[in-house]
Design brief:
The complex is a heterodimer of chains A (1006) and B (525).
Chain A (H helix, E strand, L loop, with lengths): L6 H13 L7 E9 L10 E4 L5 E3 L5 E8 L1 E8 L6 E7 L2 E4 L2 E2 L10 E4 L2 E4 L7 E5 L22 E5 L8 E5 L12 E4 L2 E2 L27 E7 L2 H4 L10 E6 L9 E12 L9 H11 L2 H6 L7 H5 L4 E13 L2 E13 L6 E11 L2 E2 L4 E15 L4 H8 L33 H6 L2 E18 L6 E20 L12 E24 L4 E18 L4 E2 L5 E2 L3 E2 L5 E3 L5 E18 L3 E12 L8 E12 L4 H4 L4 E15 L11 E4 L6 E3 L2 E3 L2 E3 L9 E14 L4 E20 L9 E24 L3 E18 L11 E5 L7 E5 L7 E4 L2 E3 L5 E6 L14 E3 L6 E11 L2 E11 L2 E4 H6 L19 H4 L12 E3 L2 E16 L4 E16 L12 E2 L7 E10 L1
Parallel strand pairs in A: 1-7, 1-8, 14-17, 52-56
Antiparallel strand pairs in A: 1-4, 2-3, 2-5, 5-6, 9-10, 11-16, 12-13, 14-15, 16-17, 18-19, 18-57, 19-20, 20-21, 21-23, 22-23, 23-24, 24-25, 25-26, 26-27, 27-32, 28-29, 30-31, 32-33, 33-34, 34-35, 35-40, 36-39, 37-38, 40-41, 41-42, 42-43, 43-50, 44-45, 45-46, 46-49, 47-48, 50-51, 51-54, 52-53, 54-55, ...
Chain B lengths: L1 H22 L10 E2 H6 L4 H10 L25 H10 L6 E2 L6 H6 L7 H23 L2 H7 L3 H29 L2 E3 L12 E3 L1 H15 L16 H13 L1 H5 L4 H12 L23 E5 L11 H7 L20 E2 L2 H4 L12 E2 L18 E2 L24 E5 H13 L7 H16 L11 H12 L5 H7 L33 H6 L10
Antiparallel strand pairs in B: 2-6, 3-4, 5-9, 7-8
Helix pairs in contact in B: 3-6, 3-8, 4-6, 6-8, 8-9, 9-10, 10-12, 10-15, 12-15, 15-16, 15-17
Classes of the chains: A mainly beta (1006), B mainly alpha (525).
Amino acid sequence: MKKTFTIIPLLIALFLCICTLGVVAQNGSVAGKVIDEKSEPVSYATIILKGTSYGANTDDDGMYEINNVPTGTYTLEISYVGYATYNESVTVTAGSVTANIQLKTDYLSLNEVVVVGYGTKQIKDLTGAVTSVGTKDFSKGAVTSPEALITGKVAGIEITSGGGAPGAGQKIKVRGGSSLNASNEPLIVIDGVPVDNATKSDGSSSIAGAANPLSLINPNDIENITVLKDASAAAIYGSRAANGVIIITTKKGLAGSKLGVQYTANASVSTIPEYLDVLTGDELRALIEETGNDKQKGLVGTENTDWQKAIYRTPLSLDQNLSFTGGIKDLPYRLTFGYLDEQGILLRSKLERTSVGLNMSPAFLDDHLKVQINTKFAYTNNFFTNNGAIGSSVNFDPTQPIYQANKFGGYFEWVDVAGNPNTLAPKNPLGLIYQKDDESNVYRFIGNVQFDYKMHFLPELRANLNLGTDLSRSDGTIFIPASAASDYTRKGQMKFYDQKKNNKLLEFYLNYNKDVESIHSNFDLTAGYSYQDWLRAEPITPFQNEDGIDVGYPDLNALGDTVTPGSIAFKTQNTLISFYGRLNYTLFDRYLLTATLRDDGSSRFSPDNRWGLFPSLALAWRISDEAFLKNSGALSNLKLRLGYGVTGQQDIFNDYPYIANYNQGESTAQYPFGDTYYNVLRPDGYDANIKWEETVTYNVGLDFGFANGRINGSIDVYKKLTDDLLAVIPVPAGTNFTNNILTNVGSLENQGIELTLNLIPFDSQNFTWEIGGNVSYNKNEITKLTKIQDPDDVGVLVGGISGGVGNTIQVQTVGYPTNTFYVYKQIYDEDGKPIEGEYEDLNGDGIINPDDRYRYEKPAPDVFMGLYTNFAWKNWNAGAQMRGSFGNYMYNNVNSQYAFYSNINGSKNYMANLPESYFSSEFVNPQYLSDFYIENASFIRLDNISLGYNFRNINNGSTSLKVTAIVQNVFVITDYSGLDPEISGGIDNNIYPRPRIFSINLSLNL
Amino acid sequence: MKTTFLKSILILTILAVSFTSCLKDLDRTPFYGLNTESVYADPDNYIEVLAKIYAGFSTTGNQGPAGKPDIGGIDEGFSNYIRVYWNLEELPTDEAVCGWNDPGIPELHDMAWSSDNLWIKGMYYRIYFQIALANEFIRESSDENLSSHGFSSGDVDRIKGYRTEARFLRALCYYHAMSLFANVPFVTEEDLTGAFFPEQISRADLFNYIETELKDIENLLVDAKQNEYGRADKAAAWTLLAKMYLNAEEYTGQPRYSDVITYSNKVINSGYTLESKYTNLFLADNHLSNEIIFPITSDGLHTQSYGATTFLVHAPVGGKMKPLEFGISGGWGGYRTTSSFVSIFADTLDGRNLFFTEGQSLEINSISLFTDGYAIAKWRNVTSTGVIGSDPTGTFVDTDYPMFRLADVYLMYAEAAVRGAAGGDMGTALSLVNQLRERAYGNSSNNMSSLDLDGVFQERSKEMYWEGTRRTDLIRFNKFTGSSYIWPFKGGIKEGQGVADYLALFPIPIADIVANTNLKQNPGY
């Protein structure tokens, strides 16, 4: 089982085995129509025969049909969001049985089943802070990556896209983030497989060649996304749950249902919402004429080039999906194909994704053994355009032409006295784009097979075995021709890379569920074991250099000459083994208790610190089920939840942090003795005692519903205390092999309130109106960061910026929020204009030096909210979704690095442009660290609006077509002066602009 | 029914057994790279660890030119040993100004640094990085450890030689720590790696420690000129001793000029000779020079960084200077000099006068403007025959940094003699200085007939400028702090002003004051 449990052959064997099955003796069928209280058909409702895998979905007319059902008596269960779950007994005989059903409206959906760690629960039985979002509420329009489906939908979860590039990653922060230097990414579990959404320590994707690991998962296959926010819900995932858990469930087929074919297409046009205001050619000429020196006057050109217009485009993207759902005899399946062609607004940027998914859920042994097989395969072909063009288009001299006959491929470039490219000058934005081919192919397979066996001798006891894998293979090339000015002296670039990631999973648990009616109790006990292993290698097959060392691809120039020999090959592995248990105890159906315990062992820590114990306890009281409230007409739901739990963090971007490693130097870091260049060996700094970071969460929540749930919502108040916070801090000089070490030193606190509210103001025969919203408040503070507190201690400088070398704009200081801006206090004149170089002498020592910097605001919002609404009128529907963020600040690095007079230059034999914002300061020289550039970036964004029409009764009702028009990123209201106020990390430095997208979405059901 | 039950039991048993075998999977070790144990088990690895201790002066990480950095919290290119050392010795003086507004730089020339200054921090942690490397190597190559590995006697002797060199390098780093920071944390090979608070040693005690170490190893090191190029020999240790003695009064309160004579004599008689042409000492083939006693090497292909001589060649090139003449693809346009320093070179016939004046003004109005102040064209990546260095991209240079060179030792002798050292001979002193002048002027017509302290200072200024000794020299001549010598922008104002005496020492970085309870900050900070 160690290295040999390869899952693919197993899956193939299983598939073949299942396909040859089909031993069916006598079968019948159940069919009927599902209507609501207004006698309108209910479409997309799920009907299942309880305890089996048989079932179907209703079509547009509310009709369903379940075939091939073995004869016998079953409980028919119909569930759909907005309706009370309905149970009816049917007896299936050979032939067809009709069961027409009328559902009762129930806006609370308390019986809806959601997936929690290692099992499922009805919403009414939840004890933790859990939010579930279904297909109906997903973000509409062009959505490339799963996490974007729930942007703004869940209180306490801040999802910020990393920009507008195709497939760009999203930064997900749950309740303020509980780590400083360890990962703040939540754990993402897809169909029972915790997937690799890891980033590297610099925030880039850990899957080579993919902008975002999750962009390899087709969002169209997703049925439901459930977020476990507090520790009592998430602690069953122990060490990886400190930043919450997002559980994604994909769509499945139902045995006995007829073949359903769905084709969806989303065609979209992306546009750039806004250009940055920069001087035009004429304006720059006028400025130079007025104020310029001779050198500048000699360099100024005659053109009026709009560099930004030159690099952006209005492309068409297309996302198509075809799915087949149904049951071949008693084998439920869903087969899906997706093809996405996403074109970015920056010239040449592109993501093409081909995906195939197959889910099967056969059952054996009289439904005692259920098998769930999920496979998802995706192939993406990416073209990464040169994002350097974004900054260059803002900065490049608009008086110069785009093209010029020269040796740099025909792109105008600044040259030095010798006629070679001027190394200090910005490069032609179009040259940057067209002279760099950066392409990658990424293949990813996520698959698992889950056996769930209900004991014959003891049906209350289930054994569940889950074998899963998450594999990826990447390869890519980067080519820059020898003529390109950007790489002229090295004669271009030719780089190759490839990577493999093999992640595997084995989980086994036993579940015992018993109602003991004599004491009005239900016991639900789970105990399990989990083994997970992550392996990453770059390159896939190393080369041997002349010293016999395994190395990667060399860095070549465009002519194929080696510029730098290959670096030492990279391969890393870590393993996590866990034992876990959970008790759910329910008394009188209204007092609920959940207790979990997880013991995690991580290969990342030394044997002495390897194991971490993560307990949790939650209590819930369904107050509305008490006799004194049960018949209250107004109050339909009231539940109080109390939770406590400990979660851990071990994702520290290094698999061997406790080992005294010796690092082998590369061939460009050798040292000569005589005529021989020796490779070097360096002991790496390490902390032998590094261990788990632990976060304790307290959560109090109240779920409520009035008027049959037409008003419902919840309030959660939480406090999260992270101890043994992993932080990179200075160690006493001379005691280690480097100065800053990642060690368990600090404490961090997050506390907040979350409010979710859903309203259904209208629900009549023809018209329905729903409004939902959530507001979250979070306060974050570092409470400890050093062994000794010293008032002179500045803290740890972070937040590198563009401009100069080594400038940082943020600081981690005890008593302040993480990443607080650390700046000089600008002095302004009577007209409110900043006076260049004049800052307040905050420590009053008569000189202005870095001791006068102060801590001012932070990038994280105090309050953020989401608001969404849907209207349905006859066959029409419309929706809108909006997000707001308040109290978040931004460092305008675009202005600070370009908007000062000397940026025009001239003395270094080139000229550059200025943003219009230059006139608000008229600084001559850069003032990178002035608080003038810290701006309030609070915003309200209309994320999307949609209007749809449902064509029913096409082709005698067997076909339906839904057409929706959607606009995404409609507008932003903000005082922030840059292009976009929503940037994770709070430093605005030429991000790829988020496009405004106009889409037409077709959904055809056959 | 019963068989199913038995099957279940069987499956569970199999799973249970596999669980326990899986627990071993938690003992993951790196696929590549070595650990302390495996490194020192192989006698061939020792030289690679020693190479890192040497390389730690020239490179900034294990990737080259950048990546896998040795120290953090500072831009990796800035963090180079020579680069930070050179900046701390040159920028607060009359010899250099830098136009860059990067963190910590403006405060250096203004002499307005705080205990959080990045360059001071960079220097401090770079020194202790080197000391920690050396301590580990010295510990692991102890006689006891070597015999436990069962190496051949040849290997053992070879490795003992490496150990001696590591001790020399550690002494050199402690000398820099003593000079810049005075009372500093003290760690030796006796202190194991991990969480502890090193004790603070007084400047005088540290002086004694370094002296004892150097005297202990001066006879163990390879004879002068007999070691491979790039490695320390006896002359390197003698030069360091001479330097310490020359500044001993500053460090301990006790002048030791007669020891300067003793040790500079040893060096002068060790076989090193003056390079015939002054400018050759700063070119891409300066490894051929017989004058350089101890170099820190750089190589355009193999030993790459953005510090050391790559910095020294690029950073002062700007304005009308042609990068190609310096063997590089582009200058960084940052460093010039002040008019005070230019005035020392009254005589333009001096071949050491390498000012670049075209398009440059003598006086500085704005430090950030490259064309304000004369540029200096001393360091180049071109060989003595005019060939450009080996890096085809024109970025990384082949020029080596002379940490110690013979002319410096001549001047040490001369100064000690003038200062009245027992055993010093004024005739020899004058002759040594005149040898330097003859090289500078190309003939003996500018030779001096007598030597006084100011004459030594002038000569030292002209010979050793931009070689990372200025701050130490100005302190010794009482010209660094106070008002006895004012240069433009001293103290942060254009015309210059006197500064407080506490600035003669740099502060211990606040980061270490916070991390180590045993440390007391230098006065004034």
